């Protein structure tokens, strides 16, 4: 199985980018992982929230394969602790799917088309974080999840 994280817009902060790269490299020891950045929608200032979500949704859909399992990182999604998330990953790996795709949407969330296509939703917190910080938090939790599955000391139980 491979895991892909799709995110709208680039990471501007060099420190965050360095940390993201560090965890991406660490993840490579456990699973094939990729982070794919979808460029911000052009002329978004001239679009309504709905129009922007629609355009972002179209860009997200273009990045998906028909067999992908799509999971949205969404504030209204299911909340898991780190052990629960590792079990969630294991369940998907055991199911024989080819690719598990997680998506961080734009500033207004997801279009209805994306919600309809999604196989699930996960919330990382009830708090609100910047889209750039969520990338780091999510990739760190992926790494933590795999260390839990391998009984490695990174996650202290």
Helix content: 40-55%
**What gross morphology would you assign?**
globular
Q: Note the run of SSEs as H and E.
A: EHEHEHEHEH
Separate helix tally: 5
> What share of the residues does DSSP label as strand, in percent?
15-25%
Strand order of the largest sheet: 2-1-4-3-5
Low-pLDDT stretches: none
CATH class: Alpha Beta
Number of domains: 1
Q: What kind of sheet is the major sheet?
A: 5 strands, parallel
**CATH homolog superfamily:** SPOUT methyltransferase, trefoil knot domain
Structural class: alpha/beta
**Alpha carbon gap, first and last residue:** 26 Å
Counting DSSP E segments of at least 2 residues, the number of strands comes to: 5
| CATH fold topology | Alpha/beta knot
Question: What's the CATH architecture name?
Answer: 3-Layer(aba) Sandwich
Pfam family, one: SPOUT_MTase
Protein name: Ribosomal RNA large subunit methyltransferase H
Family: Belongs to the RNA methyltransferase RlmH family.
Organism: Algibacter aquimarinus
């Amino acid at each position: 199985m491979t895991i892909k994280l799709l995110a709208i817009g680039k990471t501007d902060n060099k420190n965050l980018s360095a940390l993201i790269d560090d965890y991406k490299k660490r993840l490579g020891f456990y699973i094939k992982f990729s982070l794919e950045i979808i460029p911000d929608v052009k002329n978004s200032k001239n679009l309504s929230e709905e129009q922007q979500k629609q355009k972002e949704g179209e860009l997200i859909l273009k990045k998906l394969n028909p067999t992908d399992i799509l999971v949205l990182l969404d504030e209204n999604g299911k909340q898991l602790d780190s052990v629960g998330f590792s079990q969630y990953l294991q369940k998907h790996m055991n199911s024989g799917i080819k690719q598990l795709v997680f998506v961080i949407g734009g500033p207004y969330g997801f279009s209805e088309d994306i919600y309809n296509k999604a196989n699930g939703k996960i919330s990382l917190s009830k708090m609100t974080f910047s889209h750039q910080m969520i990338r780091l938090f999510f990739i760190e939790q992926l790494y933590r999840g795999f260390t839990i599955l391998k009984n490695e000391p990174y996650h202290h139980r």
